[in-house]
Design goal:
Strand order of the largest sheet: 2-3-1-4-5-6-9-10-11
Strand content: 15-25%
Helix content: 25-40%
Number of helices: 14
Oligomer: single chain
Shape: globular
Number of strands: 17
């Protein structure tokens, strides 16, 4: 249902106004976008505000361990072909940030919302989404997020009986298990590069068989569903078997997979694949990810990778050796304070690259690189790393807060 009848009570309007004021104060104080504090203030004044703000919108929720922010942006671009869109484009993906985003969408038809995995069920309950996109589940922030099997179970319970069209990755057994409780699922063959979190069956705990791209459990028969959409090389295959070319400015196979899922979501709302994919070409960078910036007369490409699956995908898209690579890792609250995940990353893929190591946990990373027999230099700051790097564009890979630190440093 869409339209412009005002769903807000006087209390809700007061909450929105107070939230915007709090956000403005936060921005003026240089404390970031203010979306989270603004949303918190607004929800304090009206705990039902998120549900009220969503009533006039066609809501699309996007959740995953990796690729949420980019896919949210691609879907938003595609759906603009059908009407105005409001979105939490900067990635504030918990209820407070989502509430802030929707407060600015009174004239929108669509809300395309990235949701942190832990909050998906609650946000879905509040916003009554028309469509939910589930991309992948893998280990992330071990001190904060649940173990992946538990997260899949949490999603499965939350989605049971949902009226939403669930667009789900058929290649990730955990996502399939989570989505299978929903009566209306559109399966997309989007691929799964990182398989280390899906070797046991989420249904019965048996060992998963993985012949080629297929998968199934030999014990209980849980198996890969037949997809109706698929990523095939540089094309998206639609349910009619037509192949539509993907032209993205964003690099890597993972972003083609994101585009395939986004095209499937757009089709739910009547936007044809050709139109959706053409519009996705507009996206050059997403909240600083993939940006090429100038710093100390050098080109730096900024890449975000927060967990083993994300690092594996990122290594696959960097320029080949001898391209210099800067790695930066922090372990602050927003990153997760447990850095044991560094041992799950295959750093031998960086062999031949000159490597420079930064960040709060540079020594943890140095030990890991030493064990992987990589040649690297530990640096005090970005300036020193750039100074020491041999000529050519520098690939800069960082986890969440390290990435934000680097963006501030280069003025991005």
């Amino acid at each position: 249902m869409s339209g412009n009848s005002d769903p807000l009570t006087p209390r809700a309007k007061l909450a929105v106004t107070a939230g915007k004021a709090a956000a403005a104060v936060s921005r003026a104080a240089g404390r970031g976008s203010g979306s989270v504090i603004g949303g918190r203030v607004a929800l304090k004044l009206d705990p039902d505000l998120l549900a009220r703000l969503a009533t006039h919108l066609d809501v699309i929720l996007v959740s995953a361990t990796n690729g949420k922010t980019t896919t949210t942006r691609l879907i938003a671009e595609a759906l603009r072909a059908a009407g105005p869109v409001v979105s939490n484009a900067l990635g504030a993906n918990m209820p407070a940030g989502i509430t802030s985003a929707l407060a600015g969408g009174s004239d929108a038809r669509f809300a395309v919302i990235e949701v942190d995995e832990k909050y998906l069920s609650g946000v879905a309950r509040d916003t009554d989404p028309k469509c939910i996109a589930l991309l992948n589940l893998s280990r992330d922030q071990l001190d904060r997020a649940a173990e992946t099997r538990m997260m899949a179970e949490h999603w499965r319970e939350g989605l049971a009986g949902s009226k939403a069209v669930v667009v789900a990755n058929a290649d990730d057994p955990l996502v399939v298990w989570a989505a299978s409780s929903s009566p209306n699922v559109m399966w997309v063959a989007a691929g799964q590069m990182w398989k280390d979190d899906a070797w046991s069956c989420p249904s019965c705990g048996g060992v998963m068989q993985r012949p080629g791209d297929d998968w199934f459990c030999g014990d209980c028969g849980f198996r890969r569903p037949t997809p109706t959409w698929a990523l095939s090389g540089d094309h998206v295959l639609d349910p009619h078997g037509s192949a539509w070319p993907i032209h993205l400015q964003l690099p890597g196979r993972a972003n083609k997979a994101n585009a395939a899922s986004s095209a499937a979501v757009a089709a739910v709302f009547g936007v044809p694949p050709q139109v959706a994919l053409e519009r996705m070409y507009q996206v050059q960078a997403v909240a600083g990810r993939y940006d090429v910036v100038q710093f100390m007369q050098r080109d730096l490409r900024l890449l975000l990778a927060k967990n083993p699956a994300g690092w594996l995908e990122t290594f696959s898209l960097i320029d080949p050796p001898p391209t210099p690579v800067i790695l930066s890792v922090n372990a602050r609250g927003a990153d997760g304070t447990d850095t044991s995940w560094l041992w799950d990353v295959d750093y031998t893929r960086l062999t031949g690259h000159p490597i420079f190591v930064l960040g709060d946990r540079k020594l943890d990373l140095a030990v890991r690189l030493e064990v992987a027999n990589q040649h690297f230099q530990v640096c005090e700051n970005l300036e020193q790393a750039v100074q020491m790097a041999p000529p050519g564009r520098i690939e800069v890979i960082a986890n969440y807060t390290a990435f934000q630190d680097l963006r501030r440093r280069v003025g991005n």
